[in-house]
Amino acid sequence: MFSEAALDFLRKLKRNNKREWFTPRKEIFERELKAPMEKLVEEINGALLDFAPDYVTEPKRALFRIYRDTRFSNDKTPYKTHVAAWFRRTGVKDTSAAGFYFHVSPDGVAIAGGVYQPTPEQLAAIRNHLAEHYERFRDLAAAKALTKLAEFEGETLSRVPKGFAKDHPAEDLLRAKQWGWHASHPPELATSPKLRAEIVKSFKTLAPVVSFLNEAFEAKRRRAVFFD
């Protein structure tokens, strides 16, 4: 759980998003936000060992930097106004494959899982996997626990991508460019002793669909080894 001081810092950062304000208060950020995030990630890792051990991620790799990449953005504010972590599968170096995510902001706590920024190769691998195993995916996505927990989200194409029949029974899934689930909670959860349990419960519910999506990359690697 986080302190009220942590949320207060993020609220003030939102109003004063500039280096002149942040730099002399960096120690507050380190103490009230970064240190609790590292501890929380470690505790979540301990829980992941029971149901998703391949997604245990050391804190320094799981935590996103507070600094924004403004190189290609019209928004030049230097800092994010939330703290976030991403739990990736062992062996994955970036955040493009399927994984688990949560963030804490003045507006609330977000918990999510899935694939949000797949590379072109990953996108093709997922679509091929879905084209063959769409019935199993629909069953996993329709699980009562999942639909009750989170909403499916993701951008879609207006038509079925090349290489797939227009009347494919999974055409709605194949048109997707992202496959993710997102749950929003009030900011009060961040300061509640229930925070860790809520994140772990959500990750456990998301685990079957996250695992399914990453199967696409495993299948691709197996084919590459077989035909090498």
Brief sketch in words of this structure:
Helix content is 49%, strand content 14%. With 228 residues, the protein is of the alpha+beta class.
List the helices and strands and how they pair.
Elements: H1 4-15, H2 19-22, H3 26-51, H4 59-62, E1 83-88, E2 99-105, E3 108-115, H5 120-141, H6 144-149, E4 151-153, H7 171-174, E5 179-185, H8 195-227
Antiparallel strand pairs: 1-2, 2-3, 3-5, 4-5
Widest beta sheet: strand line-up: 1-2-3-5-4
Largest sheet: 5 strands, antiparallel
Gross morphology is globular
User: How large is the radius of gyration?
Assistant: 19 Å
Strand count: 5
Strand content: 5-15%
Q: Average pLDDT across residues?
A: 93
Write the H/E string, N to C.
HHHHEEEHHEHEH
Main structural class? alpha+beta
Helical stretch tally: 8
Regions with little confidence, pLDDT below 50 for 5+ residues? 222-228
Task: Report the helical percentage.
Answer: 40-55%
Calculate the terminal CA-CA distance, rounded to whole Å: 49 Å
What does this structure look like?
With 228 residues, the chain is an alpha+beta fold. Helix content is 49%, strand content 14%. Helix 3 crosses helix 8 (195-227) and helix 5 packs across helix 8. The longest helix is centred in the C-terminal third of the chain and has 33 residues, at 195-227. The relative contact order is 0.15.
